[in-house]
Amino acid sequence: MTQDAVSTATLPALGRTNLPLSILRACRPRQWVKNVLVIAAPGAAGVLTSRSAITDTAIAFVAFCLAASGTYLLNDARDVAEDRLHPRKRLRPVAAGALSVHLAVAIGLALVAAAIAISFLTDTWLPVVVSGYVAMTTFYSLWLKHVPVVDLVVVAAGFVLRALAGAAAVDVPVSSWFFIVASLGSLFMVAGKRESELRNATAIGTRSTLEVYSHSYLSYVRAMSSGAVIVAYCLWALEAEDATRILFTLSIVPFAMGILRYALLVDAGSGETPEELVLHDRALQVFGALLAVLIGLGIYAT
User: Fold this and answer.
1) Which end of the chain, N or C, is less packed with Cβ atoms under 10 Å?
2) Is residue 3 in a domain?
3) What are 101-112's pLDDT values in tens digits?
4) Where are the alpha helices (DSSP H) in the chain?
5) Domain boundary, last residue among 105, 140, 171
């Protein structure tokens, strides 16, 4: 019996008799929480009082959910042998044998095509952003994830593209501060993810860059990006007009506390799955809600 056959045989039979559930699990719906970032630019631009803007933002959200799930399926099909050696990834439907590689590829391509097609329902720039995300993710899966530093930047760029997608969908400009905060915040989160993976040693052997990174280097990247993003956010908040200055100034507090809370969780080894932290950490949820309320009041209630 081959090694792959042995690996597959020893895996739990997850969803072997429930193909629709296996497909849904392979699409990783929990990861869709990342796509909420598409709301950031339209929200900051103050256009979410318009029904058309809300509709276009929703389309951008759906398009990125489809694109992300499609690329997840394609990536799982390509990395099936490596995933079977990973303590957590081996439970994914493709690696566990609950979903065939050929079917995963077919569904993945269909989802990517649907994502690009649905994005044409909004401004013409959204298909460009979605296509760019798919292309970048494909190059990452094939090559860039093995290149130290570049892999950090590319994963962070995926979050930034989500934020830019909202702006593209409703055709609003992106300010320099918005781009800086989104970029540095994304880099901070990705560095924390890699640091947690290295600390927990759950991806060594399957993620080659972890053999290059050190704890001190990733801590440096995290410290640099977290400090810079807080300064950038403060400068943006303090530039607000007099009528909204107090609300934006107050928003600095939950923003900084959210960064500090996330850093604490990473130090505890919990940053490997950022979406899980957002969904389950009550403190992060409270800080995020306070931030949204203060910014929302500053933009829409004054």
Assistant:
1) N
2) no
3) 999 999 999 999
4) 3-10, 19-26, 40-45, 51-78, 80-83, 93-96, 101-119, 125-142, 150-170, 176-200, 215-238, 242-267, 274-280, 282-300
5) 171
